């Protein structure tokens, strides 16, 4: 039902590429959870993020696709790999998991699936059939940011700049205290 709804509201999304990318996304996400080796799990998570970015491109949301690749597939995955390398995980240090955790996780997953299906069944009332096809383009986002939302955009930039200056000053102050 969701797929037919998606195809009705976005006719530029092709059916078979969507199915193939969805299949890759689901398989790589399952591999993330079921893999015994953490590094392979992180690599499969990168594939998952990249295939989600392909979904964004197919839905004409190029900005979200680029941000997803830069932030998640780039920065967050590098952080995960560093944490895995620093932890030096071994089989001997892993705690023994009981079967009750698997049962609890399965019940929680089924409840989440039930809630998602219930939410998707009632989504028909909220989707407008005549949506603008250029709503996710970077050009339109930039146009809105630099015309209608220019003041909040500039204030956010000043806020980030003051946070960076504060972090540098705090870092310098701690080094001076260590030397004395």
Count of alpha/pi helices: 7
Tell me the overall shape: extended
Number of domains: 2
State the helicity in percent bands: over 70%
Low-confidence stretches: none
Percentage beta strand: under 5%
DSSP summary, beta strand count: 0
Overall pLDDT, averaged? 79
Set down the secondary structure blueprint.
Blueprint: H1 2-9, H2 15-34, H3 38-58, H4 62-87, H5 99-121, H6 138-146, H7 150-179
Description:
The protein folds into two domains: 2-90 and 98-135, Four Helix Bundle (Hemerythrin (Met), subunit A) (Up-down Bundle), CATH 1.20.120.1200; 149-180. Helices cover 76% and strands 0% of the residues. It is built from seven helices and no strands. It has helices at residues 2-9, 15-34, 38-58, 62-87, 99-121, 138-146, 150-179. The radius of gyration is 22 Å and the shape is extended. The N and C termini lie far apart (68 Å).
How is this structure best summarized?
With 180 residues, the chain is mainly α. The chain has seven helices and no strands. It is extended.
Descriptors for this entry?
180 residues; single chain; 0% strand; Four Helix Bundle (Hemerythrin (Met), subunit A); 7 helices; 2 domains; mainly alpha
């Amino acid at each position: 039902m969701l797929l037919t709804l998606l195809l009705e509201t976005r006719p530029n999304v092709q059916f078979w590429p969507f199915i193939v990318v969805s299949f890759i996304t689901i398989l790589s996400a399952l591999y993330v959870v079921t893999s015994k080796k953490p590094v392979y799990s992180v690599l499969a998570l990168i594939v998952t993020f990249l295939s989600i970015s392909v979904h964004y491109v197919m839905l004409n949301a190029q900005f979200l696709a680029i941000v997803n690749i830069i932030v998640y597939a780039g920065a967050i995955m590098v952080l995960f790999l560093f944490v895995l390398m620093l932890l030096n995980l071994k089989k001997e240090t892993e705690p023994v998991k009981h079967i009750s955790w698997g049962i609890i996780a399965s019940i929680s997953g089924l409840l989440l699936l039930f809630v998602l299906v219930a939410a998707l069944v009632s989504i028909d009332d909220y989707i407008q059939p005549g949506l603008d096809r250029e709503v996710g383009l970077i050009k339109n986002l930039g146009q809105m940011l630099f015309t209608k939302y220019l003041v909040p955009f500039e204030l956010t930039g000043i806020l980030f700049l003051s946070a960076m200056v504060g972090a540098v000053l705090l870092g310098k102050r701690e080094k001076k205290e260590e030397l004395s």
